[in-house]
Amino acid sequence: MKSKATFTDSHVEKKIKVKRPSVRYWNEPQKEDKSRDGENTGEAAVQQDRRAKKRKQKDETSAEKKLFSEKSDPFPGSAPIPKDRLQKFKRKDKITKPPRHYRKLKQVITRSEEASDLALKQAARFDLLLPEDAGFLEGDEDEDTCTISQEDIAEAVDITSGAKYFNLKLTQFGPYRVDYSKTGRQLLLGGRRGHLACFDWQTKQLMCEINVMESISDVKWLHTDSMFAVAQKQWLYVYDSNGIELHCIRKFNDVLRMQFLPYHFLLATASATSFLQYLDVSTGKEVAAICTKTGRLDVMCQNPHNAIIHLGHSNGTVTLWSPNQKEALVKMLCHQGGVRSVAVDKMGNYMVTSGMDKKLKVFDIRALKPLTSYFLPAGASCLSLSQRGLLSAATGDVVQVYRDVWSTPVTKPYMAHRVRGSVWGLQFCPFEDVLGVGHGEGFTSMLVPGAGEPNFDGLDANPYRSAKQRQEWEVKALLEKIQPELISLDPTDLGRVDRATFEQRHQEKVQSLGFDPHAKEKFVPKFKKKGRSSAGAVERRKKQVAHVDQRDVIRKSVEDKVKMEEQQKRKEAKKAALSRRKSALDRFKK
Amino acid sequence: ACSKTSRQLTEATAAFNYNTHINACHKLKQVSNKRRNSLKVLLQHDSPASSTLRSTSYVVFRFQMKVKVLSRNPDDYVRETKLDIQRVPRNYDPSLHPFEVSREYTRALNATKLERVFAKPFLASLDGHRDGVNCLAKHTQSLSTLLSGSCDGELKVWDLTKRECVRTLQAHEGFIRGVVVRYCGTSFFTVGDDKTIKQWTMETPGYGEEEEPLNTILGKTVFTGLDHHQNKSVFATCGQQVDIWDEQRSSPIRSFSWGVDSFSSIRFNPVETDLLGSCASDRSIILYDMRESTPLKKVVMTMRSNTLCWNPMEAFHFTCANEDYNLYTYDMRFLEKPIKVHMDHVSAVLDVDYSPTGQEFVSASFDKTIRIFPKNDGHSREVYHTKRMQHVICVKWSSDSKYILSGSDEMNIRLWKANAAEKLGVLSHREREAANYSQKLKEKFQHHPQIRRIARHRHLPKIFSFYRFGFSSTKPGSVPVLSEKEKHVVSVVK
C-alpha cells in the first residue's frame, strides 16, 4: 500500500507543479515538523497536497480516524445529549421485542422505534436553541424572598416588565373574578356587582367595558380572544369582545363556576343546583348534564392533562368527572370540613386542595394518594398553579406564592403580597411572570419571577400572533377538535392496543372458523433425500424441535421465578429496615 | 451591586426604549441583546467586576437581590416587514402539547374522511375500437404511448396526454391475441388468430403509404400470447406449445411442451431475464429457463390460471390470475404453497399487472371491476368500477406507477389513477408535506374501528354483497380444515 503511494507521489511531482496549499490553523504542527526535518520540504509539500486532496474522503470516513493534520478529533461522533433532557421528551418505554418468528412485526417495530428515537433526539437537541430562559428571584444570603416587595421588584427589573405590576382601583363593583386568555394577552374582569371589562393588559388597551346590571359569579374566555362566557345571576351569557351579547343560554342556570376545555371546545359549568353541564361551544349543543347530587358547586377546576373536571364539595370530598359518565370517576375525601379550592398542575400529576380545616394538601392524582399536608393559619380561599409549578394561595387579603410544594416540604412562601380587600379570583398569566389577583378593591397584577413558561409554541398559543395567524389557528383547532367521548382518566388510552376487544373477536373467529388461525403451526419435518428421512430420523428431528420449544418455556418460567424472588427479597429488606428501628420492647429480646 | 447595576441598566434601557420610538428597530434589538448578555454576566456570583462594585453599593442598598422576569422583545417574534413570512417559534415540550394521541387520532380521522371525499379515480375513457379490447401494451420508452389490440384485429396507438388515437392499423384477421413493444421502443410485435406473428415499426407511415409489417412469420398453429425479452432480440409466444423466437429467424429457436394442449399466456421475468412463466389450460403454471431445453417445473392448481405477472422487484415472485376468483402470489422456488392468496373478486380474474415499484398489483376481472392489491395483503385496498364498464379483459399499470389502464369488453380503454385520492400535477412543498403527514397518520391509526370503517367503505353494485356472504352447506367439523393457501394447490411437478 505504502509503496504504491510513493510511486504515485513521484509521478505527480513530475507532472504537476506543486501548488502549496493555503495556510490553515490546523497545519501549524506540521510546520514545526518541517522545520525540524529541514531538508525534505518538497516531499512534505507533496504530502500535504495529497492530504488536501484526500481531505474530503477522510472527512467522510469515520470520525475516530485521525485528521489529516495528525490531530485526533477531540469530539468524535455527534454531540451528546443530556439524559434529563432526553427524559423530558420521552413518550413511551421501548417495546419488548417479539419472538424470532414474527419477522415482519419485528421489522415494523424496529423501524418505528428508530423513527421515534430520531424524533426524540432531534427534539432534545432543539431544546438547546430555545431563545428564552425562565425568570427567577434570589434574595441575599440570610434574607427571605417573601419579604421583597412588589415595588422593589418592579423597580429592579426593566421598564416593560416593571409596567406589568399595576393596580386597578375598582371599588364600586368588586370583588372581581379574573381570567386570562389562552395566549395570555387578554384579561377579563368580572365584578360581583355586574361590572365586566376585557382589555389587552400589556398595552392597557380596553376592548370593552359594560355593566350587565346583574350579579356575576364567574367569567371565562372561550377559545379565542373575541368571545367570553359570563355566568350571571340566572343564565349563562356569551359576549363578544366588543361587549355585544351573542347568546343567552337558558339551559344553563345558576352557574357558579366555569372551566373551558380548549382542545375539546367544551365549556363545563357547575351550578348552585348541583348540576355539572358541558356546552360544546363550536356547535352550541349541550353535550352532557350530570346531576352530582352534592349540593352547591362552587369549587371547580380542570385537569389540563386529561380534561377531567375536579369538583370540591362542602363535605370535604373532591370528585372527578368526565362528560361520558353519570357517576363520579373518583371520590376522594381530602379535608375535614368543606373544600375551599382545588388546583391541578399542567402535567396532571399533582392536585392541590385547601379546605375549611385550614390545611393545604397535595395529592398525587395518578396514584390517588396524599403526598404532603401543610397547615396555613388563615386557610387558603383561592389556589392557582402556574405553568412552571408555582402555587399561589390567597389567605384573606394576602396572596402567597409557594415553590416546589410537592417535591420538598415547604416552610416559607416564595413571595407574598398584601392586597386591599379579600381575594376573590386568582390566576397566573400564561407565558408571563405575572399573577392576576381579583379582590374587593379591584385588580392587582403581581410580578412573580419564574412563574411562566418562557418559550411558547407558535402553533399552539402564540401571544404575538397576527390576525391572519389567529384565523388560521382557529380553523385548524376546530378541525382537530377532540370529541367529548375521548375524555378519560388516561389520555393515552387511545394509543394502546385494545386487548379485551381483540381477544373477544379472536374467540369469535375461532368459533366461526372451527380452528385458530393465529395458532402456531405444527412442525412438519422436511423430506430429505439419501435415506435421511427414515422414520427414526424424522422422529428425532421432531423431538429436537419439541425440546427447543420446551426449553424456551422453561427458561421463561425460571426467569419469572428469579424475578419474583428478587422482588420478595427487596420487600423483606424493606421490612427489615423498618423493623430495625428500636422499639421499647427490644430490650426483652435476647 | 447587581441591583444597582441592573437598575442603571434599566434606566439605560428605559432611555433606549424611549429612543427606539424614534430610532430604527434594529437598534433596540442590539440593545436588548446587550442587556441580556450583561445581565448574565452580572448574575454570575464571583465575577471580579461585580465584586469591586459591591463595596460601594452596600451603602446605598438595603439588600441585594437577583431578579429576572420574563421579558420578550416583540421584534424577535413578529415579522419585520409585511413581505416576510410570519414567525412561528416552536417548542416541542410535550407538556405544552396535551392530548397528543387524541388530536392525532382526530387528524387521522379527518384525513381519512377527506381521502374518501377526494377519491375520484376515473380520468378518461379512450373510445374508438369497434370491438372489445383484447390486449394492451405499454411503450417501453415513452410514458404517453399506449397500444391496444381489439377482437376484430384492429390495433390502435394512443397518445395518453392528448387522450386520442394517433394511429390505427388492421393488424390481423380475427382477434389480436397479443401485443408487445420491443425493448428499444422502435417496433412492436403482434400475434393474432390468423396464425401469424407480425413485427411493425413504431413510426407512422407517411401520407399515402400503406401500413405494412416489417416482418411476418407464418406459424403452424394459433398463437395465444406473446412476450419480448428484456434486452435481447428474442421473443416468446405460446399457443399449443411455448416457442422462443429469434427476431432474425422465421422458425423458433426452441420449443417447450409438457403434455399440454394449449397455453393462455407467457411472460418473461424482468429481473432474471432468461426465465419464463406460462399458464396452461390443464390448470398448471409452468416455468422455463430459456437456456435449457426442458421446462423447469410446474404447479397444478384446482382451477385454471389465466395470466401471470412477475414482480419486477423481487425476481422469484410472480402472481397469477385464476379462474377461481382468486389471485395467487408464488415464490418460484417453493411452489408447494402460495405466499399469499388474494381474494376479493367475485368472478374469474382475467389479467394482472404489477406496479413498477413491485409493492402492488392490479387485477382485471370478469365481474366488471378492477382491484388493486398490496403484494402481501390478502384483500384488495381499492376497487374501481363504473356503470358502463363491462368485463375487463386486460389491465396495465403505467411505468410511472401513477396510472392504471384497463381495456374492457365494451370497446373502451379507461385511464384510472393508481391512488384514487392523489392530487395530480406538481405539488408545492407544503402540499407534499401535508400529504405525507396525513398518509403517515392514516397508517398509524388504520386499525381503529372508526377509521377502518371509513377507509374501507366503497359503493359497489348490490350483486357483490350477494356473492360475498354465501351460506356453507356443510356442518362445521364434518370437513377437515385446510388453510386457504393449501387448498388450491394440487401438485408440484419437477
From TrEMBL, chain A:
Span list, region Disordered: 1-97, 526-590
Domain of life: Eukaryota
Keyword Nucleus listed: yes
Cellular compartment(s): Nucleus, Nucleolus
Coarse class of the protein's main subcellular location: nucleus
Record-linked SUPFAM superfamilies: WD40 repeat-like (SSF50978)
UniProt feature, compositional bias: Basic residues: 88-97, 571-582
Protein's UniProt keywords contain Nucleus: yes
Biased composition (Basic and acidic residues): 29-39, 57-73, 546-570
InterPro entries per UniProt: BING4_C_dom (IPR012952), WD40/YVTN_repeat-like_dom_sf (IPR015943), WD40_repeat_dom_sf (IPR036322), WD40_rpt (IPR001680), WDR46/Utp7 (IPR040315)
Keywords of the record: Nucleus, Phosphoprotein, Repeat, WD repeat
Functional description taken from the UniProt entry: Scaffold component of the nucleolar structure. Required for localization of DDX21 and NCL to the granular compartment of the nucleolus. Part of the small subunit (SSU) processome, first precursor of the small eukaryotic ribosomal subunit. During the assembly of the SSU processome in the nucleolus, many ribosome biogenesis factors, an RNA chaperone and ribosomal proteins associate with the nascent pre-rRNA and work in concert to generate RNA folding, modifications, rearrangements and cleavage as well as targeted degradation of pre-ribosomal RNA by the RNA exosome.
Protein name per UniProt: WD repeat-containing protein 46
Organism: Nothobranchius furzeri (Turquoise killifish)
From TrEMBL, chain B:
Any Pfam family: WD40
InterPro entries: Sof1, WD40/YVTN_repeat-like_dom_sf, WD40_repeat_CS, WD40_repeat_dom_sf, WD40_rpt, WD_repeat_DCAF13/WDSOF1
SMART domains to which the protein is assigned, alphabetical: WD40
Superkingdom in the source lineage: Eukaryota
Pathway: Protein modification; protein ubiquitination
GO molecular function: ubiquitin-like ligase-substrate adaptor activity
Keyword Ribonucleoprotein among UniProt keywords: yes
Locations listed in the record: Nucleus, Nucleolus
GO cellular component annotations of the record: Cul4-RING E3 ubiquitin ligase complex; small-subunit processome
PROSITE patterns reported for this sequence: WD_REPEATS_1, WD_REPEATS_2, WD_REPEATS_REGION
Database matches in SUPFAM superfamilies: WD40 repeat-like (SSF50978)
Family listed: Belongs to the WD repeat DCAF13/WDSOF1 family.
Name recorded for this polypeptide: DDB1- and CUL4-associated factor 13
Species, as recorded: Nothobranchius furzeri (Turquoise killifish)
Taxonomic lineage from the root: Eukaryota, Metazoa, Chordata, Craniata, Vertebrata
